[in-house]
Amino acid sequence: MLPEPYRLHRRIDFSRTVRQGRRIGRRDLVVHVLLHDDQSSGSTPAIRVGGPRFGLIVSKAVGPAVVRHRVARRLRHICASLTAELPGGADVVIRALPGAADAPSDELLRQLHSGLRKLGALS
Hints:
Shape: globular
Low-confidence stretches: none
EC number: 3.1.26.5
Oligomer: single chain
Pfam families: Ribonuclease_P
Keywords: Endonuclease, Hydrolase, Nuclease, RNA-binding, tRNA processing
Strand order of the largest sheet: 1-2-4-3
Family: Belongs to the RnpA family.
Number of helices: 3
GO molecular function: 3'-tRNA processing endoribonuclease activity; ribonuclease P activity; tRNA binding
């Protein structure tokens, strides 16, 4: 499970990450990353507790509710395993595409890892 300090909750945080961050598409995921250390505007959050924060977007295009919740649980588990590898000032939004419903978890991990590496969030 992904601990509370590592989650994005507010709409403004999701919007800021999607609009101001960098994006890369993979077969089953779209990864948005906003590194607050690199952000030049003064609109960083006032208080940051914990490390990197993750937000998930799993729309109805992925499947019915049971499938969407299963995909979200698998993505949260994957994000929990990546918290130590990401910088503390990173916000990551993961948008699941319809193929994520059938993709195995290790494939989702590989796609997320490669997307984060290409965006410069991982070394």
